[in-house]
Specification:
about 160 residues, mainly alpha, two-stranded antiparallel sheet, 3 helices, about 25% helix, elongated
Length: about 160
């Protein structure tokens, strides 16, 4: 059954095509290849319980409750990599008719790149403090290294 008015064509090799045998094909590989040592990926902890605790907090920017997500900082990550979950902070997601703070922050609509890195670091520390104060810190998740500084007790003066 013919479906179109065009004549069907069968494939035939072109007379202009020149096929070189594999032995005579040029070798494009360089004679000496300098090897570069691979860059080690950082060890970043993932913890779903901590991300859920972060998402339960109100948005760090607008303060809305119930639409928060655990947002990772944009610095220190690469293709397919996120930063440590302990650096997350709460930002709200998109809602019908409203662009959320999370996509705005990721696209640098709220802060320039350098300022966003500083703000994310401060929000991450504040979020860790809030979760610790609420008693929601997961037992199997180690504390952030800079948060483990012990508070020195001053001797009482008589």
């Amino acid at each position: 059954m013919k479906r179109s008015g065009f004549k069907s064509r069968t494939w035939a090799p072109s007379a202009k095509a020149v096929h070189l045998p594999l032995a005579s094909a040029p070798n494009y590989a360089p004679a000496t290849v300098a090897t570069v040592p691979p860059i080690k990926k950082g060890v970043f902890l993932r913890h779903e319980g901590y991300r859920r605790a972060v998402a339960s907090l109100p948005c760090c920017i607008c303060g809305i409750v119930g639409f928060s997500q655990a947002a990772h900082a944009n610095h220190g990550k690469g293709a397919g990599l996120k930063t440590d979950d302990r650096t997350c902070f709460a930002l709200c997601c998109d809602r019908p008719g409203v662009k959320g703070c999370h996509p705005k922050f990721d696209q640098y609509e709220l802060y320039p790149k350098a300022a966003a890195a500083l703000v994310a670091e401060a929000w991450g520390a504040d979020t860790r403090r809030k979760i610790e104060m609420k008693g929601q810190w997961p037992a199997d998740l180690p504390k952030w290294p800079t948060d483990q500084v012990e508070i020195e007790t001053k001797p009482e003066v008589l």
